[in-house]
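Title: Prediction job returns without error message
Component: structure pipeline
Severity: low
Priority: P3
Assignee: unassigned

Description:
Job completed but the reporter wants confirmation the result is attached to the right record. Sequence as submitted:
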Amino acid sequence: MQYHIQTTLIWDSFKEKCHCPMCKIYNISENRLIKQYLGEAVMLPEYRVKVNQRGFCARHTLALYNGDNKLGTALQLQTRTEAVNKQIISVKNAKRAKVLAKQLAETLDTCIICDTVDEMMVRYSYTVAQMYANEKDFPKLFSESDGFCMKHFIQLMYYADYAGKSAEQYLRDLISVQKRALSRCESDLDGFAAQFDYRHSSSGSDRYNNALKNAILKLKGDIF
């Protein structure tokens, strides 16, 4: 099977037994891109053009600022600032001002890093389905995972057709894995809440103490 993206990262992330293998893939891919925009991409014209057009969201701007290449970050922000400044033109009435304000608002959160990672995650999502259908040992590893954050669970469902003839079984396993993970979250949150009952004498286990964070990871992804 010829894949459109390297599968090693998928194998490694699923073997790690984390809250969401796809979040793991996202974070690794994102960090690589941040390093890229702190490194060789700074001086490459094709990357500067992309930065000019899309810029960086607030989160990735902060990541670049906190990185180890202040000069590179300054050059890229200079490029983007120039592009934004050119979009600000004189307007003579409130109607035109609203139009311009809307156009400028659309530039606030555009981000070349977000765009690139999101495109990569689409490829990773349908590659997971292809691997389920074509890699002998992958279905077992997949079905033994601890589920996914809801965003990536939905994305995996959306691209289930890439599993071909195995799509039905793939979806059964995907949904089973996710429902099992969410049921565990429900149970752990019950246990966590019970610790605040004055009738409950035990201080609770680490499993219950981590229930709140684990539920957030499942519902909202790795936002920590």
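Comment from assignee: result matches the submitted record. The mean pLDDT is 92.
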